[in-house]
Amino acid sequence: MGVPSEQHGRRGNARTVSGRAVPAVRIGVGIVCLVWMLPIIGELVNSFRTRDAQQSTGWWTALANPLNVTQWTLDNYFVTLFTTSEDGVNIGQAFVNSFLVTVPASVIPILVAAFAAYAFTFMQWRGRDYVYLAFVSLLLVPSQVALAPLLKVYNAVGLNGTFLAVWLVHVGFGMPVAVVILRNHMSRLPKAVIESAEVDGASHFTTFWRLVVPMSVPAFATFAIVQFLWVWNDLLLALLFLGRGDNAPVTVALQGLLGQDVKATELIPAAVMVAVFVPVLVLLFLQRYVIRGLSQITGTMR
């Protein structure tokens, strides 16, 4: 009888230690999060301060004396969004361009990869495994090795500097990941449901649209959100294939404000907040879809 009592005592002690550790862990995580967010908090505060206030004092001084109305202004946002700065940068137009780049570059890979994943999972055709292996192999190739050849080809056909060029690049780089993830997800769907649809005479398109798509919405949403955030925050591909012209997205426009001879330095914090507004909004309102989709995807890849 002594052994169970001893085990019970150990479990009780473990629970007590665990209960005491929870507040410490929460405090530690809170401190890490605060330190991590300090730069963005500083940018947020400075985005509402005048140029003289930004250049003369640090952003933390504004929090120490928030009632000093002479240091606060909304002009930074109005100038950033609705006018062209002294350096020739129009953040408002670049913000619109980012949507024109990001939405198609996020939707097209999902549409194509969903059909491809269905074909790799539920359709029998010669060479299927070899083609899928080719998609998997593309994951091992760094995307940077394709940039120089793509630039040469796009310049030859006159595509460089257009939205179509950056759409094709993002679709091409995102397609292998999407196909592999969605194929692994679909392989875990109930086979009995698909076989029942085949017995009832349903076509592949009907099976895909009415059965597979509703069961795969979390996986589709997760990849679409991740792809959206990746494309929105991309600088390298946008700078190479769009440049600093009228089609430049917000990341390229923001990089232009960070040059060595920048005149409108007070606009940089406001431009940064405009650039991060959409990613933060997407994560805040769609995080439950990301969590559900990631749990499904990671479950299918075990």
Q: Name the helix and strand elements from N-terminus to C-terminus, one letter apiece.
A: HHHHHHHHHHHHHH
Bulk shape: globular
Structural class estimated from helices and strands: mainly alpha
**Total count of helical runs of at least 4 residues:** 14
The H-level CATH homologous superfamily of the largest domain, spelled out, is MetI-like
Give the uncertain stretches in residue-range form: none
- What top-tier CATH class of the largest domain fits best? Mainly Alpha
Domains (count): 2
Our estimate of the beta-strand percent is: under 5%
- Rg value: 26 Å
| N→C terminal distance | 42 Å
Quote the CATH topology of the largest domain: MetI-like fold
Q: What kind of oligomer do you see?
A: single chain
Helix fraction? over 70%
Mean pLDDT: 82
Known CATH architecture of the largest domain:
Orthogonal Bundle
Number of strands: 0
Largest β-sheet summary? none
